[in-house]
Amino acid sequence: MTTHLQAKATLHNGVKMPWFGIGVFKVEEGAELVNAVKTALVHGYRSVDTAAIYGNEEGVGEGIRQGLQEAGLKREDIFVTSKVWNADLGYEETLKAFDMSLEKLGLDYLDLYLIHWPVEGKYIDAWRALETLYRNGRIKAIGVSNFQIHHLKHLMKETDIKPMINQVEYHPRLTQKELQAFCAEQGIQLEAWSPLMQGQLLDHPVLQEIAQKYGKSAAQVILRWDLQNGVITIPKSTKKHRIEENANVFDFELSAEDMKRIDDLNENLRVGPDPDNFDF
């Protein structure tokens, strides 16, 4: 059982990644963003997830610098993820995009770099760029986001290094069991984005009932469910009390019966785009 906020999963290349982190999707540049990242690090988070398309890498970098200083941490104590956007997929384009992300973040290396979406005809060349950056020691681990089984099979057939992470939409209404089983079989660690379904699940009666049983919030129950399913999770919040509440999921364990009740909420329902049918 994942027992504390700084517990880590071991990726297939031996790199250790925190099971729990903070995401900053749709958080605009500014004091709120900087404070959220700083607060998370001071509160004990050790993983921060951003992306080029979020347009907030500079603020994330500033939040990291302030958080490291206030918490008395070193760069190597934390795990930073960013992602290359669709418009920058391609070998040379991805190398340039990586340099730009690193510059905006103010970092010397990334712990994890992901291909954000599986754009047909482009993600193979982009992956080869990630392989180059990885071999050159500029990234500790490389992975993908929103890849389905057929995308992963194609990628592994055409390239040398297997992804270490697949970050996908994952929550009780979209459990993606087949994808999770395939990733587990291949040694690819699954990571959840939108674990709380952008807040749409928090009033669900089943989750409310389970939450009451454990003396927790529905959000905490969902995040605990993620962890017990062996899925890394990165809930987004900018509010100090939410950042603290989200991380308070290590002092209880859901029963097998309650895990199944949550699993049974699956409807294959997405709040984000379908990886096989997106246009951006």
Automatic annotation (TrEMBL):
The active site is at Y54. It holds the Pfam family Aldo_ket_red. Residues 31-267 form the NADP-dependent oxidoreductase domain. One of its GO terms (molecular function) is oxidoreductase activity. InterPro entries: AKR, AKR5G, Aldo/ket_reductase_CS, NAD(P)_OxRdtase_dom_sf, NADP_OxRdtase_dom. CDD domains: AKR_AKR5G1-3. The record marks K83 as: Lowers pKa of active site Tyr. Its EC number is 1.1.-.-. The keyword Coiled coil does not apply. Signal peptide: none annotated. Keywords: Oxidoreductase. It comes from the Bacteria. Substrate binds at H116. Belongs to the aldo/keto reductase family. PANTHER family: 2,5-DIKETO-D-GLUCONIC ACID REDUCTASE (PTHR43827:SF1). This is Aldo/keto reductase. It comes from Bacillus amyloliquefaciens (strain ATCC 23350 / DSM 7 / BCRC 11601 / CCUG 28519 / NBRC 15535 / NRRL B-14393 / F).
